[in-house]
Design goal:
alpha+beta; 8 strands; Aminopeptidase
């Protein structure tokens, strides 16, 4: 178990360990419990955070907004790849995310939303 500022406690998942043996791309996915009360699954590639799933323990209280702000402070980009809640796309756009695509090493194309830190001017 390890910790991360935005993601909080990274917890081992027996299911992810099992699937990681079968699918090499799954090994990089980690379960987390953030200080803001968001739980989910994510992976990082350097200073880029990829969110696979998120769950607020108390929806409607600003947990997700606090979580996203912490992620933006810590990472150069934050991507959300699986969106089942139709309201989430609008919320992400409101927080500065744009539509994005990513092709995985096995050829799978992911579509979702990404926030990218802008380069300082000057």
């Amino acid at each position: 178990m390890s910790t991360d500022i935005a993601l909080g406690t990274i917890v081992r998942s027996p299911l992810m360990d099992f699937l990681g043996v079968l699918l090499s791309d799954v090994r990089k996915v980690q379960c987390f419990e953030s200080p803001s009360g968001i739980h989910g699954q994510a992976w990082t590639e350097g200073r880029n955070l990829h969110l696979l799933s998120v769950l607020a323990t108390e929806p409607g209280t600003g947990q997700f907004r606090c979580f996203i702000e912490a992620c933006k402070a810590e990472y150069d980009s934050v991507s959300v790849w699986v969106i089942f809640n139709p309201d989430l796309a609008g919320i992400l756009r409101k927080y500065g995310f744009r539509r994005a695509r990513k092709t995985e090493s096995g050829g799978e194309v992911l579509t979702g939303y990404r926030w990218q830190r802008s380069e300082p001017c000057g």
